[in-house]
């Protein structure tokens, strides 16, 4: 990479880290109403830093919930345009008692920065801002045209940004999107993600008697909503991890032999994965498939929580009238979310136990996506990543979902480079979330280097490859 950029980053590391800590101190928890003003404050912080980095046309855009931030710099005629995306909202920090240090008071330990949002996604997103600053400060211009779109609702479904992208294809017109909200396969190994699972998130409500009933007077005759819901959920997936909902696997396209062969070359120790990442006595799921296939290329059915009945201190002998489960289904590329939702509704209707009335409510849905690794911008990104980390870039998929990638493909007709700098043990959404400080600085270098390399040639648009 450019020695000028490298010198600038090294000279400003202390300031860059201090600014990130200030960003992390803002408790921008998007799901909690009491933090609405904090989420707005995080948007204003990001907008201010983009202005200081030399970006123009800066807007803090109000929505029905949390604001968006837009900025651009469009003074590189004949050069491609890169749309940088990130999010400044974070997950709730609960349970607080499991944090070694307060979640919104960043703490350094053993080369890591601990705070809610450190890796997901403030630390990674802020590397984009600092890369733009480094380029502007070093050269007085950017090597490509850049647009920036940041949101404050990613952790609660991203509805506002999806609507904004669908309504503003001309304003957001670009050749490629760049997102840093994923992880490297392992420390020091540059990784580009070319596949994401989609997500259908639903609530299933079960209703039994008209009201909670005395279990002594009515037990044995009245339907129990909690038990009925458990029966229903148990029918949805068998003990081997196979989903029992008819039609759920109809459109599942397996990974190609070449892709499976490349996964087999990745350094992977199943025992180490189970003990250090999962922390369980056994791995579960479909034994006929590898761990990578189960987590990257197979649909899942997971129950995230069940509410109903009495769970307080002491005893209360009631037959619950109502119970609700939060459930998600991860989709692989080629599965249609609407088709999957219809299959779930039919299954719930046909399999609800006697005396139980069930309802399915869809909270969010989005398809899986594959990106063509041969797209010119992705080839440049892989080379730039390798240059900074000194090792060949590997291509993986992710079991997670980033809905905005599908929105960019649908409405802007552009692929997304998923260039993440997190690590598998960063503890996203968990207590003691962390981000490796060296990866924060190397992320700045990598993004700046990619923009420099991408600006050396003009690339035409290529529609994303989906399967």
Which SSEs are present, and which pair or pack?
Blueprint: H1 3-11, H2 13-24, H3 36-52, E1 56-61, E2 68-73, E3 81-87, E4 107-109, E5 112-114, H4 118-139, E6 145-151, H5 159-167, E7 176-179, E8 191-196, E9 198-207, E10 213-214, H6 215-218, H7 225-236, H8 257-264, H9 270-278, H10 291-296, E11 300-308, E12 318-319, E13 322-331, H11 337-351, E14 357-366, E15 369-370, H12 376-389, E16 394-398, H13 403-412, E17 416-419, E18 434-436, H14 437-454
Helix pairs in contact: 1-4, 1-14, 2-4, 3-4, 4-14, 5-13, 12-14
Structure characterization notes:
The protein is an alpha+beta fold. It is 35% helix and 21% strand. The strands form 4 sheets. Strands 1, 2, 3, 6, 7, 8, 15, 16 and 17 form a 9-stranded mixed sheet that branches. Strands 11-13-9-14 form a 4-stranded antiparallel sheet. The chain has a 3-stranded antiparallel sheet with strand order 4-5-18. A hairpin with a 2-residue loop joins strand 4 and strand 5. The protein is globular.
Index terms:
467 residues, alpha+beta, nine-stranded mixed beta sheet, four-stranded antiparallel beta sheet, 14 helices, 18 strands, globular, disordered C terminus
Brief overview, please?
The protein has 467 residues and is of the alpha+beta class.
**What is the count of DSSP helices, taking H or I runs of 4+ residues?**
14
Given the C-alpha coordinates, what overall shape results?
globular
- Helical fraction equals 25-40%
Tell me what portion of residues adopts beta-strand conformation.
15-25%
The average pLDDT score comes to: 95
Which secondary-structure class do the elements indicate? alpha+beta
Total number of β-strand segments?
Answer: 18
**Multimeric state:** single chain
Which residues form runs of ≥5 with pLDDT under 50? 459-467
- Tell me the distance between the termini: 35 Å
Major β-sheet profile: 9 strands, mixed
> C-alpha Rg, in Å?
23 Å
